[in-house]
Design a protein that fits this description.
- The structure is a homohexamer.
- By secondary structure, the first copy, chain A, is an alpha/beta fold.
- Chain A has helices at 15-25, 47-66, 82-88, 96-107, 120-127, 148-165, 182-189, 196-209, and strands spanning 2-7, 31-36, 71-74, 93-95, 111-115, 134-137, 169-172, 193-194.
- In chain A, strands 2-1-3-4 form a 4-stranded parallel beta sheet, with helices on both faces. Chain A has a 4-stranded parallel beta sheet with strand order 6-5-7-8, with helices on both faces.
- Chains in contact: A-B, A-C, A-E, A-F, B-C, B-D, B-F, C-D, C-E, D-E, D-F, E-F.
- The B-F interface holds B 122, 125-126, 129 and F 109, 168.
Chain lengths: 228, 228, 228, 228, 228, 228
């Protein structure tokens, strides 16, 4: 089974890290492929970025389906092009936000999400307003997340803030929050922390194994038409 | 005041009709411009179409803002690129779906929407699930709406269906449902029928006149970044 | 087209200010008439006041309809008699609260309302509990709003409070908050401020122009009967 | 303890029946007084009727409080003036709708309400849209309810309709549905039927016995002011 | 009419206090019996305790029904076995949580609940998340409530906290909060305080008097089967 | 990793079938153990059955945790004892209902559940009223499900019924709906069908692999106390 992870940004700096994490958690029968884009924004931090990335993400997904993919993860918390892929493809397509939040809700009642820059908070809060209890931000641009030490320090501050606010589960709200010592933080703060990559791989493998994909009744195939 | 209507499809067959309708209802100080796209799908009937149209709609909006626009209407019930425009532009941007539904809710309690092809129902029902009571479809592709007689006949059937279901206000769920005798239908069925064009022009003129635009706290400006 | 504004209080001290504001924003074809009551409470600051004002507001509306009115605004955030008028009249009737909140929701996600005395907060919070995010009060009786300087100072304090609480749009929650420098405040705090008068005029003009009125299926005509 | 029942219509034809029913169910220490109005509509079948009845109901309540009342029931499913009374009075005030629906929700999950004329359905459905599952009507004007046989026949038809629709508890949605053989219907259809009078007497007696009344924080005292 | 109160804990230290309180508030025709369990946990402070107490509570209820009971109160805010009893018994069964919250909602809009140990907060908040505004805890184990003075001191602190948070009605969230001077606290803080015992007795007496019990359509009789 | 499946009924007739299904879908590193109870009801078809099964399910879970379990599935759609286990155990505990519904919501918008006997519908509808769109029943007692042919015939009828009602995903609402040709039905009706066993194994394996378990902030450890 081939599980494709589309990183919908025009840089491949995250691919290796994502692939290596995915390798650790995937099932034995799963082959993981990680693809980033050559066009579109270099990171996704607004609905503007999502719209610009959307067609390239969808186009990559269509290509991967033709190349034998059995399931696709849209690897960005903003999930650009996700519903379009659900309509257009005949294999399961999963976004990391929906997967992470679904798993988090099994662990507790009040989900807290840690996002990137402050500007990203309203868009995630809007999308998740009936799903999560609070969205906060580390106030770092995604591309600075290569500075893992600083990121981890700020994540810890936000975990404490979410706990004080009454949250009982933490979801990392960006696919590029990698390489941190999550186990240490879970122990230190006594709260489950859901990593979107891991949730999405589990959900997608479940769908692939069970021959399930998004309902055609909810996501009908788009009518053929001229596209200029 | 210049009010720009972006018809986010790669055909200009609707422009003249929209412009002529808009002329009838606009305020005296408003100058209306209607713009369609040169790229993207020729009609919008799925989230797939919306994603492909999105960047072109946003790009058109950015261009129009530079060319002196005072307010923009995204003239498609799927509102491709709407939130991205709200973030990126400093003039008010309004979608016809949000405008029509807002006005409809002042007129009654249970809004019924009449959409295009059956495939379009789940996407609008998903977007509006807490706002409207029922979404139905005339089961005609948008490009066939030039056959106004057939469209009108089918619209009437759906109005009756919505009333029987318990709806008390009807919203036309597509920007290309033009040239029908709405007054006759309102009288015949005794139910208000909201035309999205007219609602959106009213909302956008209100915002322009009152120097209002989408909140920067809800739609922060997108961070500058490399876009390939 | 005659647009009637009913100020449902037994004083005419606000009429001139309302009329002069309405003149600035109305369409060219609209003639505005402002009517206050001769009976009932001198201001509306409780549900008790609303109930006492209700029949007089409805009676004024019935009279105005007979005198050629094409649309009526119930000009009080408590909207006394609004639904009764929607039932009884055959012309559109709009309340300033529903109009202001509808417009505000197009501008952002978390609406904050600034009301009059503290006692008014629970009644508006109850009526709007699924529509707005927070209701606060300037703690001034309505009749003291003639002291515009003091009012404006207190409004500014409340705008800051609403922003700190997480609101992204402000609605002025009383029809008598007139003559302030709203533009200055919008610039200073970077948040849209919706003036109920302006929203209601826009909504009512939209309805009049489009030959729309409240649905008879939602607001059936009251059965004729003996009234002692 | 004096429990006052205000029948907010300008006829006393129901008073005796209500009093005799109340006598059967009241506690030993409760003295029941039934008061109807001398002004306002002869029956309440619309929000228009409610607004016209409101001030007279409130005025009657104020009078009764002065005359030693310990608790008041607003005896109409539309509850005219209820919140105004909750603000103005220092004794508990209960509406029959809120009492009946509260009790019904302890008995099942999906409450069905049987109202009077068809025109009354939207106003109750609007008020109860998050509380009850379905509102239907016997399509008889209230004043015809003196024809108990016809009323009972129609009530039975509606009970079956509500059960078929999925309701599991029935609430009689009008105070004038008296003198029917409710026990027979409960047995025949196997569904609980809540009589508003009985629910309201129970709730009001509970509040009186426990020295409870509506919260001043939710229903602040109306500010003193000139009323013309 | 025999009203049975099941205290679902394996101690009878509360029985006498409950009985004496119930005697004060019950109707003249009601005979109160208080029963505690001989098996299961000595107090209920978790869902774990609720599960262990459940079968014993249900078994006691079945026994009491055979012994002539006309109505049963499950006297614990966690309501162990309540729905099972509603299914199994043919007499009305009421939980103190549902009764107290129903009555509280008639008194105001934002209910605050005061629970026992901090650990009990999430389970009540989960059960009541759409019903109440805030759940807090006095941080005392139930068995320490015999120290009424300390309990009362802590309750007062929590009342202030709930008022500051915006609550307008207080519900005591445990059946063992007895013997306090509630009247003094209601006066001092100006907020209604609902005692679950009193609410449940009122609701249960209402059901008994009116020959009502939980709907069989919502709580069908459990199918007969082998139980090992 | 040891994954334990507790079948909370006092019969082991389902164990072998469950184990063989679980073997097909589990990950390579997972060892599955299936345990049924020796006490309690022989099947779970009511809240009454759930309450009687609860303590035995919890006790089995406690035993299995001591015997090296790494994760537990409560294998009944009624999930008896689930929250108590989440509190008491330090390993992840998952119910098949929550797992199946979570996965279903990723596949579509309107979930339909197929339950066992008609009596089971209200209890699942109550538990899932904000999660699923419709609950129906095959009207067969669980113990008759060994007649797979009849079961499958009835399931098909219900799938058609759910689709006609507007559902877009089907969840099998009982753990004993085994051995059917699900793939054939998915193809025939064009709708995803979620099997609770498979969803729960996926969720539980995800939690075990990621060292996650229910939040202590949502499910605090039950206080130690005397249990008689």
């Amino acid at each position: 089974m081939i599980l494709d992870i589309i990183v919908p940004v025009s840089t491949d700096i995250w691919n290796k890290g994502i692939e290596s994490e995915a390798e650790k958690i995937k099932g034995q029968d799963t082959k993981v492929r990680v693809t980033s884009l050559t066009k579109g924004p270099v990171s996704i931090e607004s609905e503007y970025d999502e719209v610009l990335a959307g067609p390239h993400a969808v186009s990559a997904a269509e290509e991967l389906e033709k190349n034998g993919s059995n399931g696709i993860i849209i690897y960005c918390f903003g999930e650009p092009g996700l519903h379009a892929c659900k309509e257009k493809l005949s294999i399961p397509v999963v976004g990391i936000r929906e997967a992470a939040v679904s798993m988090a809700k099994i662990l507790g009642d009040r989900i807290g999400v840690i996002s990137t820059i402050g500007n990203a908070v309203p868009r995630h809060a809007r999308a998740l307003r009936r799903e999560v209890y609070k969205v906060v931000a580390v106030d770092m641009p995604v591309l600075d997340f290569v500075n893992v030490e600083e990121l981890e320090k700020r994540i810890e501050i936000k975990i404490r803030e979410l706990i004080d606010y009454g949250c009982d589960v933490v979801v990392l709200g960006c696919g590029s929050m990698l390489d941190m010592d999550i186990e240490r933080m879970k122990d230190k703060y006594g709260i489950p922390i859901v990593i979107p990559l891991n949730a999405a791989v589990a959900v997608c493998e479940f769908l692939m194994k069970n021959n399930l994909r998004q309902s055609r009744l909810a996501y009908p195939f788009p009518p053929e038409k001229e596209i200029k």
